[in-house]
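Quarterly update from the structural biology core.
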Amino acid sequence: MNTRLSKIITGIIILCGVNTYAQNIATTEKSFAKYINKMAKNVAVQKALQTIDQIETETINNMIVLTEIPAPPFKETKRAEKFLEILTKTGIDSAWIDAEGNVLALRKGKKRNKTIVLDAHIDTVFPQETDVTVKKDGKTYTAPGIGDNTRGMAMLIAVLDGMNKASIQTEEDIVFVGTVGEEGLGDLRGVKYLFSDTSDIKIDSWISIDGGGKGRIINGGLGSKRYKAIFKGKGGHSWGAFGLANPHHALGKAIDYFVQEATMYTNSKGLKTSFSIGRIGGGTSVNSIPFESWMEVDMRSLSPKRLLEIDSIFKKAMKKAETVYNASGITDKVTLEIKPIGDRPSGILPETTPLVQRAVAVASYLEIPPVLSTCSTNSNIPIAKNIPAITISRGGTGSGAHSLNETWSNIEGSKNIKMALMVTLAEAGIAD
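Predicted structure, tokenized:
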């Protein structure tokens, strides 16, 4: 194979549902390239890589089985139980579902000084009643959530199977994890729990599989804060109670204040920061003064400091709208409630981080051009805690993520399973 490690060009690519920002990366340090090349020649590693090709049909079948079990956030239990069953059948030292609903499968190492996690999230963005039947057309599979992220779950099973059939023993423990609550209002609850004081394990390195872009290696967490702002009033008849405080009118003023201030801020110098009002609701009929008006807001930044600053701008704008509207001569008043509905920390690990270097070296060995990126994934949590963490790709070719017509095509799909295997082995170490 070509072991030349390419340099990455700065640019912007669209991945994992958001803008993902590529970073500059120099050629991988020679020591990491040398180690990966040596590891790849290991007889057991070669057998594991061959096994991944040999079990491709089984891997696809696992992907289909898991896809056809609905798993919206907070309702992942049935899919989690099936995932646990398959991992146990594949062969593992111990496996369980923790208090938050995450699936954990421990493969013990020889030294057991560290714990390396290989993760794929279980949940999807689709409601329980969504038709998740998989349709096949040649090498293309279509179903909601098939790429994001049951393909990742199937990859974990294949990596475990490859290690077992090749009788690979690692120096450190490896825990195969299926996390809950990665999507939307799940707000990374699964991974947040795993890094809390009540978790069953202490994690030293974290590797997630999520999203497309074959050579994408996420070493930066795109932070976000999300709120639901609710203006409430008494409500009444549009004619008979005319002049009564109207929550919709207050919300309109709040939106205007926030957009003006936030636009000036995001146009200023500094790392990119964004804002969006994604949903608005409230009211009972066209001829009624509503008793409630609400909106949901998403704010993101590559900078923890700027994220806090735009968060402050939002809260001040909401409070200003409440105060100014209530002083405008209306009868009675509106009240404001701001509910946090999402909080993902931001951060970035240096390209010199050994885990990042190992991933780049493995990608280059497998002739997958590596690109370092920043995105919003499970890795946000460990990255913000300065714990070695990356998110790598599911491989193949996908389209329509988070849509009813999501597809995944098996175009060199096994390459990224091999990448997941080799990165995990490189991080855990192969026992003599």
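The longest helix spans residues 304-326.
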